[in-house]
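Consortium newsletter contribution from the modelling node. Members have asked for a concrete example of what our holo predictions look like. Here is one, prepared for the pyridoxal-5'-phosphate complex that several groups have been discussing at recent meetings.
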Amino acid sequence: MTTQPYIVFWKGTFIVSAAAAVYTLYKLRTSIKKSNSNPKVNPPKIINNITDLIGNTPIVKVESLSSYTGCEVFCKMELQNPGGSAKDRVALKVIQDAIDRKAIIPHKERKDLVFEGTSGSTGISIALICNALGLQSYITLPDDTSLEKLKLLESFGALIKKVKPASIVDPDQYVNSCIESCNKINDDKNDDRRGIFVDQFENELNWKVHFETTGPEIFEQMDGKIDCFISGVGTGGTIGGVARYLKAEKKLRNIDVVVADPQGSGFFNRIRFGVMYDQLEKEGSRRRHQVDTLVEGVGLNRITQNFHENEKYVNLAYRIKDIEALKMARWLSNNDGLFVGSSSCINACSVVRYVEEFGLQNSGKRIVFVACDSGSRHLSKFWKEALALKEEELMSTLDEL
Ligand SMILES: Cc1ncc(COP(=O)(O)O)c(C=O)c1O
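And here is the predicted structure:
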């Protein structure tokens, strides 16, 4: 008996459809299985160079401060940059600009140099970026710079010159000494290496990179809804660039831009009363450091170019005592799992002061402060003191700040 062709046709169609249905079911099952097995997996794409990780830092809601104030309090996690602070942005911008201008050339047999006088995070950012791009970092710093920072710089292979702490008018002061070392190489006809001096305090690429990146990131992450931005002033780059972006570019004219100032620094009086001065600076009372505080990275007693250019966008300031910063360090670590450095703590203290001054409790205002670096950068000084606080000195509520 011969099989009818239409039966063959329908049999074939049935087999193909059944196979397709089984395959689809199989794919569906494995994809459901996959997504159920780890719904949180959403890894970023592969990048080609560590410098591609700079910027686009997250913002985290700080629950303990939000519930205490009845506002929405967020921190911009600049400590998530690969070099551990916002200084990565500045170092990359200045170095990239010098490469574009051909002032320095990466990956030569004899490495071109990037000079900076810094005892802070900027040196670490420069050292990291130089290694990633094929350049050599040269950092001058005071000889009492904390051991962890020194070790980090050494680990990155930075050339390090330690000098005795001195006033900025002294030619042997670490910034002046750095400029001299850079000029020496550029003036030497027998040395074919070139050098640039980053000059983070006066170089306006500093505030510009925050205007181009940090400010827009914050605006986008907050959906444009932001009432207050709080930062310390080290060079003034972060606060200047972000404030200018939010107020001038995005026309958020009503937002408050607040300087969190450590004791001994002059910005509080500068913003509140127009005078750059702190009582701790009076003749005879000043100790060895530029600003007498445990807080590192922020606080100054001169107006930098980066601050000067953007001062008109800053309208408030709070002066935070070291003891308050120490208590806040323990509070944030214990209540939010935020293990941050000293300048982040004075920013967080300023959130509380701001809400108190304007009676903003339960107003739902959206406040962003900067988490500049991790507590691990401050273990031997600030966090040593924070850990030495006695049980009764710790805050059980933020009313005690
Ligand atoms: C520890 C620390 N605090 C504060 C700041 C803000 O400083 P600046 O005013 O130089 O932008 C920075 C910059 O990254 C920092 O590293």
